[in-house]
Amino acid sequence: MKNVITYINSNNNRYISELKDFLRIPSISITLKHKKDMIKSADFVAKKLKEAGIQKVKVIKTKGNPLVYAEWLGAPGKPTVLIYGHYDVQPVDPLELWDTPPFDPTVKNGKIYARGATDDKGQIFMHIKSVEAFLKTAGKLPLNIKFVIEGEEEIGSRNLQNFVNKNSKLLKCDAILISDTALFGPGIPTITYGLRGIAYMEIEVTGPNRDLHSGTFGGAVANPINILAGMISKLMNKDGHITIPGFYDDVIKITKSEKENIKKLKFSEKNYAKTLGVKELKGEKTYSTLERTWIRPTLDCNGIIGGFTDKGAKTVIPSKVTAKISMRLVPNQDPIKIAKLFTKYIKQITPKSVTVKVNDLHGGYPIVVSLNDKATIAASKAIARAFGKKTVFMREGGSIPIVITFAKKLKASPVLMGLGLNTENLHSPNEHFNLNHFHLGILSSAFFFDEFSK
Amino acid sequence: MKNVITYINSNNNRYISELKDFLRIPSISITLKHKKDMIKSADFVAKKLKEAGIQKVKVIKTKGNPLVYAEWLGAPGKPTVLIYGHYDVQPVDPLELWDTPPFDPTVKNGKIYARGATDDKGQIFMHIKSVEAFLKTAGKLPLNIKFVIEGEEEIGSRNLQNFVNKNSKLLKCDAILISDTALFGPGIPTITYGLRGIAYMEIEVTGPNRDLHSGTFGGAVANPINILAGMISKLMNKDGHITIPGFYDDVIKITKSEKENIKKLKFSEKNYAKTLGVKELKGEKTYSTLERTWIRPTLDCNGIIGGFTDKGAKTVIPSKVTAKISMRLVPNQDPIKIAKLFTKYIKQITPKSVTVKVNDLHGGYPIVVSLNDKATIAASKAIARAFGKKTVFMREGGSIPIVITFAKKLKASPVLMGLGLNTENLHSPNEHFNLNHFHLGILSSAFFFDEFSK
User: N or C: which end of chain B has fewer CB within 10 A?
Assistant: First the structure.
């Protein structure tokens, strides 16, 4: 391990320079406009895997963006780790709020600023570079490695789902290592043992067949915006409890010991609120902020648009208004069932004066991993070695829908060893990644290979 | 009058051709992008007034778009009529819903399609052309005429307000003739004796200081869209009654006889709903549709935008959401007072978890004119002569804020002799004007000069 560590430490600057090249590719998956960049990004990943010393690297076409698959199976009898990550990134709007261009990676105060820096290009790069360190020093790894890097995580991973379902033999492994989550705080080695699921819906409310003059027609017809606002307000009660009938039916109650564990974590609500610029934190009554974001399901409007939205005052009753609404789910909620309950309830509360269309845009299952799992134990030891501190265990409010597919289909445990921070503006302007964590992440990855091979 | 009528009838095609030239100018006042078109439009009006035979025509600069003032005072001892109209038009979005380009006037089935056709270019043009008919035949008018044509009606007429306040001597008159309203139905001669006022507000709700990942932060903070939806839903109760404290305090109750008059009008709720493409008409309980749009105040969201609004699914809790909300007012509601009550109530119902900004974008007073007014009687006779039918009296739900300023400042009665139709898509795609009504409007204008001069 000594040579591996020395290699990682002495190649740090080159690693950062290569990461910059990766971040320069605007691989936004939500729009077809970046189709070429998706291919470019997949090719880049494949090239870096080859440069790391892996011979078997393939870029696999899908109906959407290509997958990158790679394997190094030179340790017969030893366990196999499947490393998953994604090269696609979130959109960049509102662009005007970025201090530096999102695809012109800029290092400031030990952080690298770019879209995808922490979510997830910076994090998959850590594993490619730890593999490189082994293969360029020892010429081999202490266990077997497979890589699956996709380009559709931000849009629901549909093609990877298909691929996993059809290729469980190819992907067979003992653990799935994923770095797409966050540390509990800067410098705190963390393993995430739970993720929320998601049901992402879109509602379109239509009133009159065209935009109407709000003077002439004001009072004659139901206004779709007012109606939709009323409907949204009926999705949660005053206590932040979601009012969709049956919504909580399958929610597993948190155990006493887990509640205690969460309580023990050093978390300042005051600082957290300050960072977010809000006067008070707010959510479901009787739960703490960590509980609300980790172990409780939630509902949020992600966007709304209708009527006249430019500067000034146009007097219309709009024909149509659209809202995007997503729910974060916890074990054992089923996104398909939740989408159905949501749709049923929305139709039920839609007044006769308008029509409604509900679309299920995408869904993902929640997951919780046992803390006694062999891979989780190895990961917690590995990251503790890298950071020189005791590992903290947390859950995460976000969703990585593919994790559950991997776990179910491959019958292997996922290990969520993320090196990001929730304050690193993933999905927001000025996304960045702490370069110290990037470096510690490469070491953690190397230590994990060592620990899990024992 | 015989020669005047013959002139109007025989010049009809040229009038339409000239109107097309007027409609080709994209004089959208809401944006500064069309600054040049506003000047072009004012110059066009001035040119047409001169061509009609009026010598004293002036284009008057303001802080905003220019005014056109003209006068023909060759009938000493006779009454003076001030004719008001506006050359500015509404924006054209959504452009994709127009069947023909909004600034490429197209005649189809006896209707002319273009932005501004009925609101208000087609309607001011009627009066310019009736004046032309008198001056080109008799060489004189039976009474004195003043024109004030502005370019800021669609954005609140602020500069005209100033001009009227400072120039009451110049504008002195016995009646103010305005054609910017609608007939009760096709072929029905109509005088409008009431207009609603308006208070147009904008609310901006801000939560966290940036867009947040809705997975990681969902449950931690109040979501501005959900909050705003809740606030909007608190502006009206289930019965469509506005819940802003004090909102109805100054509303004058409708008299029995007016209620009877409205009941007598031939109005099919069924056909009206069908035209608008809604399953049911909806508004304040216990009032009929005509009452709700004419004599009752209303509240409508005119636009809303926040968060992710493109196609697909971005998982954000937005930092900010904005809604435009306007209220239509009836006598004796005061838009300034209503704006204050609205602002106070909004601040009161804003939870501590977000911040709110309320902007008063513009306001206008409501008005009702006596049916015994001399000018109103003359107008009702004039339009009946042109149409060969008995005149119907109605109120209108829309607002022409400048009307009250004229009436108060000049101590003269407004006469609302509009030739449009509420189904002519003013403020919507495919705005048009019935060319038969355009022709009858020119005749009505000529007959009004005759009747009012008696």
Answer: C
